[in-house]
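Hi R.,

Here's the chain you asked about this morning:
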Amino acid sequence: MRRPLTVLALLLAALALVGAGCGGDEVSATPETIEGEVPEETTTGEGNEDLPALDLTGDASAGEPVFASAGCGACHTLSAAGTSGTVGPNLDDAQPSYELAVERITLGRGGMPSFEGQLEPQQIADVAEFVSSSAGS
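And here is the predicted structure, written out as tokens:
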């Protein structure tokens, strides 16, 4: 008779724990440790403002070290860069076009900051070419 009571008590405790985990506060995908500054607000990425990098030809081999030094891998997975960030989209899965990569890198969107003031247009073109040409490979 003692064993069924123990099992019942454990079952009730487990149900209480599961019930406590449901609902409540919303949880976001924010890392515990972030290097650099996280912007208070980002641009919406809507519209196609002047994007100087779109007028340039990107160099993927020059974009790889910029991808690393700008900290892109802290948020994004990209096999070619050896990164496995999980905060932003997995670039291997997303396989963004050159144009989309230029837009997102320049303007930011959602949780991604704009790199317009941090990277030169040629660096943005180079990173966009690196990402668009190597994603998914």
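One quick note: The beta strands are 77-78, 83-84.

Cheers,
M.
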